[in-house]
Amino acid sequence: MIKNILKYSLITLIWLAVWQIVAMVVGQELLFPAPLAVLVRLFELCVSREFYKTLGISLLRVVAGMVIGILIGALGGTLTAFCRIARDFFSPMLAIVRSTPVASFIILLVLWISRDLAPVVIAAIMVIPVVWSNIETGFLQTDKALLEMADAYKMTRAKKIKHIYMPSVYPYFLSSLRSSLGMSWKAGIAAEVLLQPLVSIGKQIFEAKYMLETVDLFAWTAVVIILSVIIEKVLVFFISSALSSYSSEKMGGGANA
Hints:
Shape: globular
Mean pLDDT: 85
Largest sheet: none
Low-confidence stretches: 253-257
């Protein structure tokens, strides 16, 4: 752990030095501010009560969208894995969602729902197809030999799901979370930038750009990047811990029985 901390600290310092060199070469804070100026502004934001209000509301919107997207994707992937008709029916919709630019969704949504709800829907849209396809693949890739053995021993459907399907789907599900949560967060913030809800990180980024406050723009962008990493790590950790705990309990209960 100490070696990793030292390694990543050194890498961070090198990139900060590169940033500082580029800022010195440019020589204009309006175009490219130095890291110290951004850090000072970030500290000023962190001691402001308004900052945490803005942060909390944007987090609530996007995380709500992520959770909705995970639930819909998991249910849809399970349905299409076991029902060929449903798979054929929903595949065009998933292909359209994957292919349509995020900006198009944002522009369409502002015609149908409020600006405050649009980032929630955008965050969900980014998660749904990734989780859906991975859950479906996980079920379809389940070891057929194990299923045949389960049928031979007359295992109930519930036990098949707990002891055979879940271990097969688990790595696919975690992979979908790692690849979609960060993308979902950034898409939600992009929706806020375009739609500018009254209290949002996106509105702060837009205003910083409009007022040519480049230091503020860099500071808020740093906030988005940091939160993207935190959200991904925290959600993946809690979901994987919950699933691991659930699987362990069921396996233990099955063994005792």
